[in-house]
Automatic annotation (TrEMBL):
The gene is argD. PROSITE patterns: AA_TRANSFER_CLASS_3. This is Acetylornithine aminotransferase. Coiled coil: none annotated. The modification N6-(pyridoxal phosphate)lysine is found at residue 254. It comes from the Bacteria.
Length: 405
């Protein structure tokens, strides 16, 4: 039966819960780092679905993995295992510190699993007193009630009734603030190696090493939330690798599936033993479709060519942003690493990141915000240099538009 209604932006307001305020543009197809809307207008994508589309749109390796698996097997539930899940887990274990993997559908679910595991491990090994979780201000760990409370942005967790307890927040990049909170009752410290939603703020090497040492001193597990930084985003397979610090638990999602929903929690055999049969689960976690796509994404990205390419592309982005800034003086700093960069707005333009986002969209470019003071870029890890240059030309026009009112 043919549709008897117009599929447009107005339909969103009619049928969707109003927790999002999407753009008026409705994209209908994408290829590489370009996207086309309902009117066949072309955009360059520097947003990557919020650091998800690590290989751009419709990458042949991902399309092939999805269609091949779609013709074999979609879903079984974890009453049985499946080949794509086993292959993906083996490759993750072989490429990282981890010995065991748990699959979920999203970053929030991977973090939920990590936090539950940390609590269960501490309970089993040390007893009921050891249940405190320490996170950091401005952190973001997902939208389940547990993960959003652990996240350091109260605005996201307020207004839903009593919050999960024994959760504390230290100041990011301030070791003294963590020292003041950590104790024999701390079961875990969770942190992003680069704070994403909090403004693209990298941890200093001293801070990350200090956090590891404090965790060891107090027998607390260190959880790295690498949902946004993982799978090549920083030019390493995982960001922890450049710090010389190994977490006890690591969470991964976003780029892991290249656009297909999947999350993973990675840990050691000794810690994993505490999620014994029946303690945690997921109906769709580790489904054959998701794992087949993620395996193809991992195989494609985890190569010297792609990872060194990310570092080259970062330099190109920085060079072009510096040229724009020399002309318009809108940024106080460009923070981040690899294809996760944040242009922090100067004093004069503070609070206006959305204006830059909207102006960019008007000129055929998708960018992101990281709070009201930072324009965030999280494009495909294999975005062609030509698309970076063309996108930056459009961004310069957007900047000029904002500056000139």
């Amino acid at each position: 039966m043919s549709e008897q209604f117009a599929v447009n932006r107005a339909l969103f307001d009619e049928v969707m819960v109003p927790n999002y305020a999407p753009a008026n543009v409705i994209p209908v197809r994408g290829l590489g780092s370009r996207v086309w809307d309902q009117n066949d207008r072309e955009y360059i994508d520097f947003a990557g679905g919020i650091a998800v589309n690590c290989l751009g749109h419709c990458h042949p390796a991902l399309v092939n993995a999805l269609t091949t698996q779609a013709n074999k097997l979609w879903h079984l539930s974890n009453v049985m295992t499946n080949e794509p899940a086993l292959r993906l887990a083996k490759k993750l274990v072989d490429s990282t510190f981890a010995e065991k993997v748990y699959f979920a559908n999203s970053g929030a679910e991977a973090n939920e699993g990590a936090l539950k595991l940390a609590r269960r491990y501490a309970l089993d090994v040390y007893g009921e007193h050891k249940q405190d979780i320490i996170s950091f201000g401005k952190s973001f760990h997902g939208r389940t009630f547990f993960t959003v409370t652990v996240g350091g942005q109260a605005a996201y967790s307020d207004g839903f009734g009593p919050k999960p307890g024994a959760i504390h927040h230290a100041e990011y990049n301030n070791l003294e603030s963590l020292k003041a909170l950590i104790s024999a009752n701390t079961c875990a410290v969770i942190m992003e190696p680069i704070q994403g939603e909090g403004g693209i703020i990298p941890a200093t090497a001293e801070f990350i090493q200090g956090v590891r040492e404090l965790c060891d001193e107090h027998q607390a597990l260190l959880i790295f939330d690498e949902v946004q930084t993982g799978v090549g985003r920083t030019g390493q397979l995982y960001a922890y690798m450049q710090y010389g610090v190994v977490p006890d638990i690591l969470t991964s999602a976003k780029s892991l599936g290249g656009g297909f929903p999947i999350g993973a929690m990675l840990t050691t055999t000794a810690i994993a033993a505490h999620l014994k049969v029946g303690t945690h689960g997921s109906t769709y976690g580790g489904n054959p479709l998701g794992c087949a796509v993620a395996e193809a994404a991992l195989d494609t990205i985890n190569t010297p060519e792609v990872l060194t390419g990310v570092t080259h592309k970062e330099q190109l982005f920085r060079q072009e942003l510096a040229k724009i800034n020399a002309k318009y003086d809108v940024f106080s700093a460009v923070r981040g690493q690899g294809m996760l960069l944040g242009a922090a707005l100067s004093e004069k333009f503070k609070g206006r990141s959305r204006d830059f986002l909207l102006a960019s969209a008007d000129l055929g470019l998708f960018v992101l915000m990281a709070g009201t003071d930072v324009v965030r870029f999280a494009p495909s890890l294999v975005i062609p240099d030509a698309d970076i240059l063309e996108g930056m030309a459009r961004f310069e026009q957007a900047v000029a538009k904002v500056v000139n009112g």
